[in-house]
Amino acid sequence: MPVWLHDTLAALASPGLWRSYRHVWWLNVVDDGWRYLVSALVVWGLLHVLLRRRLAHRLIAGWPSNADLRREIAYSASTLAVLAAVNSVLLAMVVGGVVEIYADPLGHGLAWLLLSLPVAVVLHDAYFYWTHRLLHTPWLFRRVHGVHHRSRNPSPWAAFSFHPVEALIQSSALPILLLAMPLNEYVVIAFAVHQIVRNTHGHAAVESLPRGFARHWLGGRFVTTTHHHLHHETAQGNYGLWFTWWDRWCGTERRDYLERFDAATPPRHRPTVDGAEAAA
């Protein structure tokens, strides 16, 4: 038997190892959980509770039902459990020197410190697009990805509402990135925060971006809430996560996207002198 396999099996048989793993797993649940809880609560509290009436004209299709919310929260909890397990394995990979998360911000130079987060986000977007396309193959959609698509009018709590298999696929993005490149610990935190905040916002069911954003030469490169909402409505097209370019390059962006974005961002109205309303 190879030495590495013997050592691995011996370690796995150690009760102390599993006690340590459970401890690390629980710390990861708490660490990832509070970020997700804060982000989802802020987006949901603002758009679905405090500003619900003021933003009703920006509702893309319909409000999520209470049953949707309960299901999304339950699956989000299971996703956090899977994410914590993956992150615990990632910690073992760091300790074992398989991947590198370094503490010194200048450990790999200032240029890499500044570039690494954008590079990681762009690579994550590509990873998500192609794994998402894979999850839309009939067999995987029926057995795995369909869980996420039960939310036709998603809430911010749908951001992590995944079947455990999909949760494993999506939470593996960071370990795979780290196998290819080292990242500073603060970049890793920024990557995680960006992922959670934009994901909860992308499932908000209300378009909060300004009118014309999707038609702007720069704004049109970013996925909006409407862009992803149409994917939930139809389960066809608009597979991108952060950027629209993969959908455009591959011909999978929905043709009704810009029209629906315009409908979700109507012009403001102001009262005229005689009390009637006019478009701003």
What sequence of helices (H) and strands (E) makes up the elements? HHHEHHHHEHHHHEE
Radius of gyration: 21 Å
Strands, total number: 4
**How many domains, as an integer?**
1
Characterize the overall form: globular
β-strand percent reads under 5%
Provide the residue-averaged pLDDT.
91
Strand order of the largest sheet: 1-2
> Main sheet?
2 strands, parallel
Descriptive overview:
The protein is mainly alpha-helical. Helices cover 59% and strands 4% of the residues. It contains 11 helices and 4 strands. Strands 1-2 form a two-stranded parallel sheet. Strand 3 and strand 4 form a beta hairpin. The termini are far apart.
Brief characterization of the structure:
With 280 residues, the protein is mostly helical. Helix content is 59%, strand content 4%.
Topology, please?
Elements (H helix, E strand, L loop, with lengths): L2 H10 L2 H36 L15 H30 L5 E2 L7 H26 L2 H6 L20 H8 L1 H8 L2 E2 H18 L22 H10 L10 H6 L6 H8 L4 E3 L5 E3 L1
Helix pairs in contact: 2-3, 2-8, 3-6, 4-8
Label this structure with key terms.
280 residues, mainly alpha, two-stranded parallel ribbon, two-stranded antiparallel ribbon, 11 helices, 59% helix, globular
